[in-house]
Design goal:
cytoplasm; DUF896; UPF0291 protein RT41_GL001891; single chain; mainly alpha; 84 residues
Length: 84
């Protein structure tokens, strides 16, 4: 799924929490456990992709205002049209 922006809805987060409560109570069915695993994976993938996007948009500068962004990151940013 690389390059795909994943989003998780508030409803999905609420469902994750609901299933977590049911698991804690010991009333989670096998079908719900499967659903919980899918939702958790989607949540984790979403967080990772959002974090990756944030890191890839970073520009590092020193105290004098010089760009010290690593070359690898600069190349990626140029490839994605973020940097000239």
């Amino acid at each position: 799924m690389k390059g795909v922006v994943l989003a998780i809805t508030n409803e999905q987060i609420e469902r994750i929490n609901e299933l977590a409560r049911k698991k804690k109570e010991g009333t989670l069915t096998n079908a719900e456990a499967d659903e919980q695993a899918v939702l958790r994976r989607a949540y984790i993938d979403s967080v990772k992709e959002n974090f990756r996007t944030q890191v890839e948009n970073v520009k590092l500068v020193d105290d004098k205002g010089n760009d010290i962004t690593p070359d690898k990151l600069k190349k990626l940013q140029k490839k994605r049209g973020i940097r000239d």
